[in-house]
Structure formats: C-alpha cells, structure tokens
Amino acid sequence: MNDALTPPVSYRVRGPVIDAHVHLFSPGVIAARVEHLDCDDWFCALYTDPKSRMVPFERVIEEMDATGVDRSVVFGFAYRDQGRCRDTNDYVIEAVRTHPDRFIGLACVSPEVPGAIPELERCFDAGLVGCGELFPDGQRFDLAESRGLDEVAGVLTERGLPLNMHSNEPVGHKYPGKGEATPGPCYDFASRHPDLVTIFAHMGGGLFFYEMMAEPRRVLANVYYDTSAVPYLYRRDVYSVAATAAGPEKLLFGSDFPLISPRRYLEDTFDLDPTIRAAIFGRNAASVFGLDGAPERQGRLA
Ligand SMILES: [Zn+2]
Questions:
Q1: Do residues 287 and 227 touch, judged by C-beta distance below 8 A?
Q2: pLDDT band at 8 (very low <50, low <70, confident <90, very high)
C-alpha cells in the first residue's frame, strides 16, 4: 500500500496537511469486535458490517506517511456508556503520548450519562485538547436541548477548546450513522453556544449553505465544517461551493479514516485554488488546534 511516499506534484498541498477527523480503536477492541457489537446500538449499526474497518494508531501513522499527512486529529468512538468512552480515551491518550508530533487527541464523553465532566477534565490533564466526535443519535442526546451537552459545551468554551460533533443531511439516501443531527438542531446548538469552537462533521449536513444568510453568519461565527465522508456524499464541486458559501477559512479537511483514505480527498481537490486548498488541508486546522504559534493555545499542545 506504500506506493505514494512521494505524492505527484498535482497532489501536493502548499503547507502542512492536517487531517481533522480520524477514528482509532485499540487492538483489544478490534480483537473483541464481535462481542463488542452487543454493547452499544450505534457501534453495532456502524461496525456490524465486517467491511467497516477499525485500525490501531500504528496503521494511521502508516497511512499518514503514505499519503503525505503531517498531523491527524484522532479520537475513539463515542459510546453511550461512559466507561467505554473512558477506555477509548485511554487509547487516544496513549496514541498522543507515543506520537506527540503526529497526533492531536480529542476525548469522547457521553453527555447525558453522569461522569462526563470529570472524564473530560481527566483527558485534558492527560493532554487531549478538545471533545469529539460525539454522536447525538447513538449517545441519545438532543442537540436542541441536552442539558448534559450544554455542560460539556460550557467547559470547552471556558477552556477555549473545540468540539467535533457528528451531523448529517436531512435528505438523500439512508446509511448507517444517519440520524437526527441535521442543520436545524445543529444551528440551535450553535445559537446556544456562540463562543464555542464547534466543528460539525460531514460538512454540517449542509449547514454551511446558510452562512449565506446574515443572521446565521453571525451565529455561526465560531463554527467550522469538516469534510469527512464527502466522497460518499457530494460531488467534488462541494469544496468550492462551500468555500464560496461559508468562506474557505471555515472548512477543515477530515478524512474519517479508516472509512476513506486521505489520498481520495487530495486527489479530488487537485484543481482547487491552491490558496483555498492550503487553508482547507492544514492552515485552518492549525488555527483551530493552536498549532499556528498563537502563544495562548500553543502551551496546551506541548
Ligand atoms: Zn461522523
């Protein structure tokens, strides 16, 4: 698979490449995958199909090296059960400690289950720098009115740390993982937490379009959209359409690896304006995750 250690010229990005959306699973969970299916409805929905890949962090590093990704934002799986979130976070902490120059880690917590805030604090003390990817349907909280989620958002806002939230389109084909986290509830959440840096995964289910309206533009000032799963959902013009609607500074490259390789996104955008491409593939994430030299944020990632 290591056939692209030197990517073709058209594939290269001006500046560092940061993948803002990568899932990790520990070797223990991968080995006990079938037993694990009974434990969590959402995990079962996404991973019953043996073709849904699960990888440990060493495999992520291999893919990053093969495709030219400098750093990846990694997280586990957002279980409904807080204990399983804790286990998944332990593995992300181990990944970040093993490769501090390659990985940036986020914590998963179950917002409506007691213990979410202490678990978040534990993860921050251990070096994780945000929360996500949370799954409203799988973890059974309502984006429009979850008190537990509001508490999580409050802690993140106070610390200036980002939240990655799963979202999906309200229209189109059904697929495992598609639920109620559509642009309306996402917008309600952002309205309640306008100062929180929120990254809505999977292009916010189309929420970026409404940034063309004046009031949503203000409400969504601290919202970003990651590109995870775009090749499965949209024509590749969506990158330039979203850059026009929301601004190129609001888009973060996220692969959703191991679902899709970073290579696919790099290939699909080879003809995008190079400045916009550099922003989407690295510069914006560097700013969101404090890798751009802003002194108040840099310390947290040391
Ligand atoms: Zn997702």
A1: no
A2: low
